[in-house]
Amino acid sequence: MSRSTVQESASYVYGIMPGDVEVDPEATGVGDPPAKIRLVRHGDIAALTSEIALDRPLGRPEDLFAHQRLLDEAAAEVPVLPLRFGAVVTDDEAVVEELLAPNHDAFRDALDDLEGRTEYIVKGRYVESVVIGEVLAENPEAARLRDDIRGKPEEATWDARIRLGELLGEGVAARRDADTEEIVGALAPLSAAVAVREPTHEQDAVHAAFLIETDRLEEFERAVEEFGERWAERVTVRLLGPLAPYDFVTTPYPEEG
């Protein structure tokens, strides 16, 4: 009578890379302690993986950070197709059979398209007092409501405060749309592709991803710096990257075996 065995570990997949690359033997990924990184190769491509224990939850902030860090560091050196956090399959054989083999040509072509290109994020955050002042200066109703509620109890001016909040929110959103259009319009000619992201904060002025060719990076950085200088009094502009190109690739998500 045979006895079934309980699987204790599986393969965690971070992303897809060219098959001729090598990984740093000291590189680590998710897990506690962090697991060693390995490559599972198939044809012209390879999966960046590590072993993961199945008896512990996956989802700690440290795991998410490790996933992103590893992919961003890889993207700074070679083309990489990132998988979203949490891609787990039975073992390395399943990595090949379920992910690499059926998608080999599509992955190879996508990696070829990314050769010499990396993602960067342009993030701008309004100086709150300045942008609110701009909205109030252009919206007489908002300015009147601001004056009406000044110094009065909150409970006596509840409706007016709600309306003022709506007007300020609409005004900031309109400015965000205009500022995003301006900076994206200026930076798009320096980029291979652009993806405008949703704001992550009510005071966001711009949040956009750009796929940048290596030989145009310095020119792109200068253009972002010029916007930062021009907008210095009203918007804090940051350039983040290089990053894995999450905004410009769609990678199939392997099912856990």
Proportion of β residues?
Answer: 15-25%
Order of helices and strands: EEEHEEHHEHHHEEHE
**Span between N and C termini?**
25 Å
Helix content: 25-40%
The main β sheet shows up as: 5 strands, antiparallel
* Overall average residue pLDDT: 92
Shape from CA axes?
elongated
Our count of domains comes out at: 2
Number of helices, where a helix is a run of at least 4 consecutive DSSP H or I residues: 7
Poorly predicted ranges: none
Protein name: Gas vesicle protein GvpFL
Subcellular location: Gas vesicle
Organism: Streptosporangium saharense
Keywords: Gas vesicle
Textual characterization of the structure:
This protein is of the alpha+beta class. It has 2 domains: 9-115; 118-247. Helix content is 39%, strand content 24%. The protein is built from 7 helices and 9 strands, in the order βββαββααβαααββαβ. Strands 1, 2, 3, 4 and 5 form a 5-stranded antiparallel sheet that branches. A hairpin with a 2-residue loop joins strand 2 (37-42) and strand 3. Helix 4 (128-138) packs across helix 5, helix 4 (128-138) crosses helix 6 and helix 5 crosses helix 6. The longest helix has 30 residues, at 158-187. The chain is elongated. The two termini are 25 Å apart.
